[in-house]
UniProtKB/TrEMBL annotation:
Gene Ontology molecular function: ATP binding; phosphoribosylamine-glycine ligase activity; phosphoribosylformylglycinamidine cyclo-ligase activity
Identification of the protein by name: Phosphoribosylformylglycinamidine cyclo-ligase
Domain PurM-like N-terminal intervals: 43-156
Keywords: ATP-binding, Cytoplasm, Ligase, Nucleotide-binding, Purine biosynthesis
Domain PurM-like C-terminal: 168-328
Amino acid sequence: MVSYKDAGVDIYKEDKIIKALISQITFKRNDSIKPAEELKGHYAGAIEFGDYYLVLCTDGVGSKMIVAEMANKFDTVPIDMIAMNVNDAICIGAEPVALVDYMAVEDINEDIAKQIGKGLNEGLKESNINLIGGETATLPDMVKGIDIAGTVLAIVKKDEIISGNNVKKGDVIIGLRSSGIHSNGLSLARKVFFDIGKMNINDKLSHGKTIAEELLTPTRIYVKPVLDMIKKVDVKGLAHITGGGFRKLIRLNKNVVYLINNIPEPLPLFKEIQRIGNVSDEEMFRTFNMGIGFCVVVDKEDAEKVIEIANHYNIPAYIIGKIEDEVEVNGEKINNKVIVEYKNKKMIMK
């Protein structure tokens, strides 16, 4: 069986590296502009600014850019970059308002630049944000190909922040359908298709789409429906399901169990990756979104309204799980974890 680690990505090593880096950062400004301590370890960081928090998120598209280069198609990856940022920002109830982008290139031509500009414009429109600046660096001695990243600014009133601290037993987890692989797990997907499967970028998969079409489908942007939900429903927690899958839910409240026990049928792409690569269920759920790109935690009585709002924006939504104090797995009582129940098997997402 092939794993994400076999493809060169060790998510547990990444966790250790981040902790090592953060352990060395002790400096803080000694004035009224303070970080929001209640958001430490959450999806987005923020600083106090009067009655508001200014929120910052930064991200790129990872090895999805390699797929874009293989297909010579660059107009969707900028949407991914924006999506990865804005979808994180809304996890604390913040409204994204502006983006600065960074592009590092070995070399680039005008056609590729136009494609990237087209994608940026589409992502800006879907997120309702402005591009206010950026940087392009030509670095032939450092960069092979093209890499793009960005930083998004978002705002939220201090008394309207959604931290997830009040998530409690009895609440339900609503999953919003992903558009596909989004921007995570591409290293494993590439290893499965191109190394193990010996396939080409334009080969068709069994469900009719080409590898390029599937892997370059842009990440769904959840800004408009989620901000609408926040206005109309008492939303308790929000989670962007990216690298590490449902493990990310634990960022909301570390004192409960997130039981995902009603997962909808995974998208055809994930079934193909699992079949060709002989990837275990556990590895699939630790690496990919498996068809759920965003989660909303609410009281049970608010679930129908959240699903209705998602459907209004043409996003399928489902009750995929619930919050518990503890769950029994193989005779052991489990606390403070994310548990996925799939094919009559409970998997602890460590």
